[in-house]
Design a protein that fits this description.
single chain, SCO1/SenC, two-stranded antiparallel ribbon
C-alpha cells in the first residue's frame, strides 16, 4: 500500500512542461512548446542507418513519434546488458502505444552486423515494431552521439573517431526532434522518471 502511494505521488509531482536542452552541460531551457524560439532551437539531424531487419532507418521512421535513444554494443560485458534490460522495461510499458519508439545505436558497427543485431534482438525479446537496433557508418553514429545527443561527458577533451564511445545515458526526444531529458540507463529511479516524462510529453499541447 505504501509503495503504491509513493508511486502515485511521483507520477503527479511534475512540472507543467519538460525543459529543452541544446548543449552538453544539459542546462535546462524553460521554453513554451508553442514558442517561436523553438524554430531555430537544437534538433537531432537526419541520419541514415540500418536496423536489425536490414531496413533503412532515418528521421522519417520517427516522424511524429516520441523516442528514447541510447548507445550500446552487443558484445559489451559491462553496462550494456543492464541498459538493454531497462530499455526493455520501457518497451513493455509502452508496448501498445504507437507514439513511442526506442532507438539503440551500435558503437561497434563494424562488428554489429544486421545478422548480429537480429540475433541480439531475438535473445533480448526486442519488439521490431517498437525498438530499432541500428548499425551503419561509425563516424555518423559517433557524431550523432557526441555532437547532437550529447551523451558523453568528455571533460573538455576533444574526442575523435578512434576514441571509444561508451555511455549509460538514455536521451528523450520529442516529436519535433528536440532533446527533452537525459537519464541514467542503469538507475531504476531514473528509468521510472523517464517513463513519467514520456507520459508528460504525450500530454503536451
Amino acid at each position: 500500500m505504501c509503495c503504491k502511494t509513493n508511486q502515485k505521488k511521483e507520477e503527479t509531482s511534475r512540472v507543467d512542461a519538460l525543459p529543452y536542452f541544446n548543449e552538453a552541460s544539459f542546462t535546462p531551457k524553460w521554453i513554451s512548446p508553442t514558442s517561436k524560439e523553438l524554430t531555430s532551437f537544437h534538433r537531432i539531424p537526419d541520419f541514415n542507418l540500418v536496423n536489425q531487419n536490414g531496413e533503412t532507418v532515418t528521421q522519417k521512421t520517427f516522424e511524429n513519434k516520441i523516442y528514447v535513444a541510447d548507445f550500446f554494443f552487443t558484445t559489451c560485458p559491462g553496462i550494456c546488458p543492464m541498459m538493454t534490460s531497462n530499455m526493455y522495461k520501457i518497451q513493455e510499458e509502452f508496448k501498445n502505444d504507437n507514439d513511442v519508439l526506442l532507438l539503440s545505436h551500435s558503437v561497434t558497427p563494424e562488428k554489429d552486423s544486421v545478422v548480429k543485431l537480429k540475433e541480439y534482438a531475438l535473445e533480448k525479446k526486442i519488439d521490431d515494431k517498437k525498438w530499432h537496433l541500428v548499425t551503419g557508418d561509425r563516424k555518423q553514429i559517433y557524431d550523432l552521439g557526441r555532437q547532437f545527443y550529447f551523451v558523453e561527458e568528455n571533460l573538455g577533451e576533444p574526442l575523435g573517431i578512434d576514441d571509444f564511445l561508451h555511455t549509460e545515458n538514455f536521451v528523450l526526444i520529442d516529436k519535433n526532434k528536440h532533446i527533452r531529458g537525459i537519464y541514467n540507463g542503469l538507475n531504476r529511479a531514473s528509468i521510472a522518471q523517464l517513463i513519467v516524462d514520456i507520459k508528460a510529453l504525450k500530454n503536451e499541447k
